[in-house]
Input
Amino acid sequence: MSVPSFLSPSLTAGIEALTRHYADTVLPLWRAAGWNEALQLPYESLDDRSGQPLPAVRYRAMACARQLFVFSHAGPAGAARAEALFDSLQRHFGDGQGAWLYSIDAAGKPLDSSRDLYTFAFVVFACAQYHKLSGNAAALELMTRTTELIEQRFADGEGLYLSALAEDFADDGAPVLQNPIMHLTEAYLAAYAIAGEPWYGERLQAIGAAVLARFVDPASGCIAELPQGEAGNRIEPGHQFEWFSLVMGAPALFAGSALEAALRRAFVFARQHGVAADTLGVSAALAADGTLQDATQRIWAQTEFARALAVEGSARSLDTLALWTERFRSRFLHDGGWHEVLGPDGEVLRADMPSTTSYHLLGAYQALQALVGRV
Output
């Protein structure tokens, strides 16, 4: 397939190098050493030097769901693993009615039985993606049951959702938080894409309006981690880029909305204050005025920056993206995998490779591949 003329040779080469590293290095980690054959689950984390599993303490439903998404997109060679992950998700974490445990212990026994919105959202997302690519009818049914339970149990009565509930779904005081709502938005977008049900579109627009009213800083357009006015609030640049990609990727629902307009400003703000000019490294957190709060750089935020640049698609963004592919590869990737967290000067701050990170890598690389006309 010919490469579009607006892509520079350096960007094209960078995209090819990243996707090759993913196919040749990242996926094989989770096909082999990262797979617990006895439990039929991915280990939570591998050592970033040896590539071997770190001592298992827990297995999370969310991590299983993310790997289901990854292997659903791994072609025919990933089909058997995706099927195994779908079965394990239900066997270890589900009750058959759309409710999910947060985690099990190393022996496969329930560890944390609380009801976590972030987890439920990823189950909806993974089931939608798995059904789309496999045609598995049970995945569609499970997606629907989980969605119904989210709406029945987690809704806060003001258009959004509580971040967690007790095992019996009682309100245990957990707050409304931006991050699980963002992933629920991602999940409902995936469900809407396969089901085409108007309800999902209407709910997404209502979520967008409620997020705008409660989380968006009018000065910058950024979506804060906590509702506006709460103590200890912060802006995470990576989440601005993630929200930007989700909303801009759904113009039929969000084009011309106040949330879209806010996120266009948030993209500029996060890029100006949250991205290092020399390395293009994305920092972890800012204050509302753009002051740096946390200079550490987590790999997921780097990939969300790349995805947002690809979705935004201007000449300036594509020029930045070409530089980003080089700097990201040299700073975060290595022959055995990746570095999960770096300091601002490039020092490695964590020595693990979580199973959840491949989800972020894949999302960014899909956006990059879309630039060259293939997914």
Summary: The first helix runs from residue 9 to 31. The first strand starts at residue 35 and ends at 36. Residues 253 and 283 are 30 Å apart (CA to CA).
